[in-house]
Amino acid sequence: MAGMGTVINIAAIAAGGLFGIVLKKGIPERFKNTIMQAISLAVVIVGISGTLQGIFYINESGRIDRSFITGMILSLAIGGLLGEVLRIEERLDKLGAWFQSRFAKGESTFARGFVTASLVYCVGAMAIVGSLEDGLYGKIDTLVAKAMLDGISAVIFSATLGWGVVFSVIPVFAYQGAITFLASTLKPVLTDSVVSQMSVVGSVLILAIGINLLEIKKISVGNMLPAIFLPLVFSVLYGLFK
Hints:
Distance between the termini: 37 Å
Number of strands: 2
Largest sheet: 2 strands, antiparallel
Number of helices: 11
Strand content: under 5%
Mean pLDDT: 91
Number of domains: 1
């Protein structure tokens, strides 16, 4: 059944998040800070490795070459502008604040946990590719693997950021479910090249999330979410006008 991969994924996030909540009270604050720094560094490394893997390749002469640099820049720039117009990050913050006011009034880190976890679980390559595989072929292997990784990270995130991590299952379900639902409709234009390019942009955003977590610089990652889907738009436009 299409969508089962996402159901398994959000169940793992919820279970891991709840377990992390139980652990939270027994972890000293300095340990929480160290854990958060460690996972932030890991997020940065995942983002860098995914970006480099998608951009660089070995050409026929055996030399390292690169591709999609211009497309990546255009996707991020135009996608960021679209996100600013749509105020995606602001709306995510407001949604997190609304949940906090209803379910966790005394928890100061709720909104941060909600937004951070939502973005981490949505923008990565596994979320994109796994949801497409689920919708196109009924394959859930990638999303099951993602579920295991997300469940483990949810324990760590919720132990430091609280209940917001558990509530991130709502946007994750909506995002991955929408990709799975639309995959069959978009099948003719979802070439391997397009999916790879979407994954590269997702990896760049993962890197940006890591930078935010390390508090190096605040990047509006939420507003850049449309960038993930622009390689698909570029491919369609190229097919129309070539």
